[in-house]
Amino acid sequence: MSGLELRNIVKNFGAVEVIRDVSLHVNDGEFVAFVGPSGCGKSTLLRLIAGLDKPTDGSIAIDGKDVTAISAADRGLAMVFQSYALYPHMSVRENLAFGLENTKVAKAEIEARITDAARMLEIEPFLQRRPGQLSGGQRQRVAIGRAIVRRPDAFLLDEPLSNLDAELRVSMRAELAALHARLKATMIYVTHDQVEAMTLADRIVVLRGGRIEQVGTPLELYNKPANRFVAGFIGAPH
Ligand code: ADP
Ligand code: MG
Hints:
Elements: E1 4-13, E2 16-26, E3 31-35, H1 42-50, E4 57-62, E5 65-66, E6 77-80, H2 92-97, H3 107-121, H4 136-148, E7 154-158, H5 166-183, E8 186-190, H6 194-200, E9 203-208, E10 211-216, H7 218-223, H8 228-234
Helix pairs in contact: 3-4
The structure holds adenosine-5'-diphosphate (ADP) and magnesium ion (MG).
């Protein structure tokens, strides 16, 4: 089976159950948003998918292959964090190339990918600058660019726009939609902003207390919320 499959995922930190029996299938090329209040387990679930952390129980498969024990680097995924996580002492170009240099990807290919991503994200004029010399929006573009140059099968984005001001967030939202249309890659997008989820996602996964409350298209969730919590969170009448 193609796509990403989460089966009965449980994650405990000590005695605390943070993810409780989450099962989900994400299709190739799908844009899925994880929404829910702060602390409901969105980032934890994303980190488990990325392979940055291991589930306490359950399994994760990509294209039918069990990756539960496979390292983050070998899963073909790229993660974009809210905090950008750029190296301050490196230029934008070096930040983009970092992590690709010691792989099988040839130098010329790395250069071509950087040029392509920089053009796509309109950060070409800043390639020689350091992150500290960029605005928040430009930094977040670089962070997305760093994921793009890896040519991942799926992008995992953890509240990538939440540090940006409202106006920029709206324009970056449109850019993300365009990027998804162009790359045709799977995107799993964590946000606590329901408007972002409603406008960007093919399907929305509503989480509460480490459990899935409902999964559906934005329209399904709006028209047929499973309960008052989902309705309230989505902003649907209830
Ligand atoms: P969200 O991203 O939805 O805000 P998180 O996934 O970051 O939520 O956190 C879910 C819960 O797990 C929170 O109660 C948080 O305190 C707890 N948690 C997250 N990471 C750890 C950790 N490394 N150790 C202990 N508790 C953690
Ligand atoms: Mg989080």
